[in-house]
Amino acid sequence: MTKVAFIGAGNMNSAVILGLINAGVSPSNIMVTNPSPEKREKLAQAHGILHTANNVEAAEFADFIVLGVKPHLITQVTNDIANQIDVSQKCFISVAAGTTMAQIQQSLSGKGSVIRVMPNTPSQLGLGVSGMYACSQTTEQQKQVAQEIMQAVGIIKWLDAEAQIDDIIAVSGSGPAYFFLFMEAMETKAKALGFSDNEARALVQQTALGAAQMVVENDISIAQLRENVTSKGGTTQAALNTFREGGLPELVSNAMDSAIARAKEMAQDS
Ligand SMILES: NC(=O)C1=CN([C@@H]2O[C@H](COP(=O)(O)OP(=O)(O)OC[C@H]3O[C@@H](n4cnc5c(N)ncnc54)[C@H](O)[C@@H]3O)[C@@H](O)[C@H]2O)C=CC1
Ligand SMILES: O=C(O)[C@@H]1CCC=N1
Predict the structure, then answer these.
(1) Ligand 1: which residue has its CA nearest to atom 15?
(2) pTM over 0.90
(3) Where does the Pyrroline-5-carboxylate reductase dimerisation domain lie (predicted)?
């Protein structure tokens, strides 16, 4: 049975662990590490998975090692593991933004295989999106298992070029936060209009859920769905005009470019 180690008990790894458990993976095949006992013990207790403070012990246990620490720590962690055990048969899956394949491979002295994955937090509901890019040493079997791990938490897209990881970050990796910001702004205004906290939250979340579900279930374009809400000369048109006058479409494009630029900057800093 494939064994998976998760280095770091943070947001992203917790999401993938939860997804795997929900998908029926045996907890005894999953080990999580974290320097502080609280976070890893909480996860271990919640799911019955194994835990340790020792990254090398976890890497020894597993065939697949999911690197879920902050980008600047990735190569430190992989270098430390590769200095202490034979990693030639291991497959490292890095979910870090802005740490390149070359940087990770170098830290492993070229041993083992590396797959860069860019998931997102809706993975914890099984509604994630993951972009995946594998190094040339990755075997078909390793690619298949990595794909199964990420498919347990959502849809995946294999990428042909590593640079596309940064594009996926801008779309789906950071994307949930764009929608949260929008929902927060609507919630704040709903409260200002006099709705209670609970009412404002319920109104906004159901609207967002309904809109997303309409996109999923209809075979027409998103633009058409928008037009269907927009009566000529009506209230929606008035609101959308205000968004356009404020430059919303350009702002979204600029924001996504900022995410891409930041991913590239982070690669320089790593
Ligand atoms: N949060 C998100 O939506 C997404 C995050 N990512 C990537 O996932 C990675 C982790 O991000 P988050 O989960 O948000 O961060 P986080 O801060 O929630 O989790 C990182 C965890 O690693 C632990 N840690 C620190 N040093 C460690 C070490 N030497 N060994 C083991 N564990 C250690 C920390 O205590 C913390 O619990 C980042 O590289 C980020 O780029 C990727 C896609 C989406
Ligand atoms: O904000 C970040 O850097 C990470 C990568 C995508 C989502 N969170």
Answers:
(1) 10
(2) yes
(3) 162-266
